[in-house]
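Q: Is it fine to ask for two folds in a single conversation?
A: Yes, each is treated on its own. Send the first.
Q: Here.
A: Result:
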Amino acid sequence: LTEDDTCTVNTDEDTAVNIPTPTILTSSVVKKNTRSSGKQKIKCSECDYETFSKGNLCHHRRTHTGEKPFECSECNFKAIHKNSLIIHMRTHTGEKPFECSKCDYKAARKSTLNDHLRTHTGEKPFQCTKCNYKTSHKNRMSVHVRTHTGEKRFECSVCNYKAVRKSSVIVHMRNHTGEKPFECSDCNYTAAIKSTLINHMQTHTGEKPFECSECEYKATRKRHLMYHMQTHTGEKPFECSVCDYKAVQKGSLVLHMRTHTGEKPFHCSQCNYTTARKSHLVLHKRIHR
């Protein structure tokens, strides 16, 4: 292969075009191992990728050049591979060709269906190397790993809030917009988070499904039971990095840290009063009534 060689790729009109092959295909990167057919294996000069197909190498090259020739006609999405564009178009058409044989679930991607099928089998093949966490979804593992690395790639556009998950930022933004899309069917209560509404509904039903194994305590929320259990064990896992303070709950440690930092994030809209605790602001506002 020489620098004058060309590789043939298909455009989104399925028309073959010839594109000059760069130095990535020069003879210096051709490995001398062969298949039974006698074809030589071609190696990428930028990384360890190798293939017997010149077309495959042309597609691979785009991961280095950033070229994305396949464009969506509905939005700004661009793709390296035509198949990626086909899958993306289903977000516009709503097409979900992959159906679960166990239930009514449908998916736009085969890989998404494979993930779903594990909800029936209980299989959790992805295991964290740092802790005992297991999951059926590869992308969930990627998100979980960030809890160990501390990486928070999703940022709020209004304040300094950062999150591991994009969905967390979406929920956080409701603090700024005041949006509460989840409504109680029994009263006027509305919530920004679905799980909060589910917890609220238990105030109508009186249901307390989480029971302590040590005493008669019952809770509407699992985390409340977890906190309660620490009254039996004496465990205080949240430690202050400045002093000897320890807490049962993370929220208690967050409040405590403000005694060191002086942070007072809660502001009165009627005067200059600021406080470290939301409950103190609620009490303060009564003087303006």
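Q: Second one now.
A: Result:
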Amino acid sequence: MTSLELQLKRLKVPESQVLAVERDRSSLLFDAKEAAGLGRKDFYNIGQKGLAQLKKFDNDIDSYERGLWEKSSLNFNRTMVDKEENSELNDSLARMITRLAPYFHHHACKQVLEWLIYKYQIHRFNAEILFLAYLPYHASNSFGRMLSILKFTKPEFHFLDEFCKTGSPVPMNVLIRVCHANNSHFLIPMLSSFLVNAIQTVGDDYCEKRMHASYTFFAGFMVNLLDDVSKVNNQLIARIMPYVGIALKSKILPFKYAGMVVAAQLVTVTSLAPEVLANILKLLLLKMRGTWVDVALDTVILICQTQKVSELPRKAILKLVRKREELNLVPKLHKLMMDYDVTAFMVNFWDTLLDALFKESDKEQLSGIMEVLTQTLNLEGMVEEQAVGLFNSLLSYMESDPERSEPLPQVLSQHIRAIVIRFSTAFDIVRAKWSVRDQSIVDRFLKECHIEAYELIPELPGADLYQVLRCSDAQNL
């Protein structure tokens, strides 16, 4: 569309819009000739029939916005209402359009929309919310058909002009390309705001149970946006992150899962700033529930594997410790240690617990920390790299508090002793580095863990030695 055409479109006067409404015979189900042959009662009956069919899926569908279906609405003329009435009508229509979103692929939904199009001209006055509500069905012919009657006024939607003319579905790659154009990313806040408003509009329960398609599309759209690494920049991340945060904080489980999917994609394709990582980790760990603990832990582990995570949020980890039985935390961690490489996470996890152990004063909390520490310092699932990280953490804490009079708790020192003897060669390499740094710290460590020099047998092939050295270097960065 040329610049002149855009200006003329913006200058369109209200009277011309009224005339356009009066002449409009747009239809989702019929061609122009068929639609022109139908009367208001015909369209009303079509809508009522659709409502009756949708009651099979949602028994309350006809009770949500009763005012839209009253007999008196047959003679309603939208162009004659004042601003306040129109605002109330828009709110009611937005709620109904949102409630219909889960059923767009059903013919009954299109019958209901047919009445709303005829009587309330939603394709003209509510085009944007129609587009956003039914965008999860963008690849369907039904969506293309709906596009053919929508009347957009905002210039952002001009990319749809050709699809509106032909009534064609919109491929995902088109949505992604347009969103990336000129770094505008305009669809991100539009789509995200629709989902947030939907929760306020139709309630948590409705969204949780019925709007899975919307949250699945949100996740897929964001993942596709991040798929091309060359297009991932600070501007895109800044656009996405607020809505990832909203999703992770949401009480709506499908929305929360979508946020985790997007966060996982983000950390896979780019390096995030430490403060951004810290915020994501807090949101994932702070309000953990049994229903999503597995997915949240998987996401946190992925973040630790792909990003430079120097610490986990202490408050969140201590909350996990308090809820360890409710979340079945230790068995889950044992299984993860046996099945996957979770070194980066476990080293940070132990590091956080050790920090709390040396600083916490609450006896009940200390008991929980000791329980989780000793149960996760599991020789069966532990690998050499994890042992190296643990040794470095312990030595660092001893160095940070040289005046500490109390030795390590006996139960913990026994576990550490067993780990040192099991991974004696790895410990000997760590010990050699720390001896250069501060021999007294190493001596203190050996004394508190009751380890004698003869119990350490440094004997390891060259290739394995190189691997442990490299791991030790990484832990000290």
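Q: Anything structural to flag on that second result?
A: Two points. Confidence is low (pLDDT under 50) at residues 10-20, 459-466. The first helix runs from residue 3 to 10.
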